[in-house]
Amino acid sequence: MAKILITGAGGYIGTTLVDAALEAGHEVVALDRFFFGENLMRDFLDRKKFSVRKIDIRDVKPSDLEGVDVVMDLAALSNDPAGSLNPDLTTSINFKGRVHVAEAAKAAGVSRYILASSCSVYGYGESTDLTEKSSTNPLTEYATSTFHAEQSAMEMGDDTFCVSATRNATVFGLSRRMRFDLVVNQMTRDAVQKGRLTVMGGGEQWRPLVHVRDVARAFLNIAGQPTDMVNRQVFNVGRDNYQIRQLAFTVRENLPFPVTIETLPDNNDRRNYNASFDKARTVLGFEAKYDVAFAVNEIYQAIKKGDVDLGSRTVTVDWYRHLLDAQQLVSQVELNGRIL
């Protein structure tokens, strides 16, 4: 069993990965700023192999990573709209911060580093079934910073420092740190709350999709592979590709009540990409398990039972905007470093 340090451990994927790694018997160190609340770690605090470090990835030192076998680097200002909220901050965290973590891991003698990248680096795909060798075309600050971090990390890989990256499809499904700004989750919530789905841009655009539990499985799979199989390698991680309008019908078909679908022609979002997951199947033997129907049902049941947060923290860009506004307010009333 390995000692795994997970950055972004308090996030949508991170909380699920912490759970999966502990269940697999690994020792886990959860590192995060915990923008969405430290209470997300409460279910793990009684585990003997679990510990928490509240550190900004831009402040990580090699000494923070001593004794760690694997760094799984998930920390980032997540998704395209949130990344555009403050482009300089996105570059600082998503690119420079993650490169800093990789450099600190290498200096500390960590043997493996796995970066959470994204299929959004494909941007507007020139074809379907985009592979890891296809041209990239990032259209947003989030995608650009992610791609630059991925490329910089790959350059660090050598015989003693194994570097891998997962280009995750658009993630969906239940998580302790729930997000309703991801397309399957948002559609399910809207269908339950409003009985209506709105599909923008005609709905012809493609998105690859993957359940959050499958992303966690992929990380643990890569961590257990022989070094020569995964060093300096990028893997698309996903299960299916959907056109957005097709996805809306799939969500509707898996709910036990009528749902209206409205399709609108205009959309400023130009992203359109359809990814191949053959490399992960062939090299890693990895197959995603959980489909959209599974997620729609689990989210619907959680909403119906009141087991899931539906507040502002579940829409990432809204919560980041709230934090930035709060920071600005504090700076305005602060005097000599004090508020009161």
Task: Walk me through what this model shows.
With 340 residues, the chain is of the alpha/beta class. The chain has a single domain (3-319), classed as Rossmann fold, CATH 3.40.50.720. Helix content is 39%, strand content 18%. The protein has helices at 12-23, 80-85, 87-107, 141-156, 183-194, 212-223, 227-230, 244-253, 278-284, 292-305, 316-333; strands at residues 3-7, 27-32, 50-54, 70-73, 112-118, 162-168, 170-172, 196-199, 206-211, 233-237, 240-243, 260-263. Strands 3-2-1-4-5-6-10 form a 7-stranded parallel sheet, sandwiched between helices. It has a 3-stranded mixed sheet with strand order 7-9-11. A two-stranded parallel ribbon has the order 8-12. Residues 332-336 have low confidence and may be disordered.
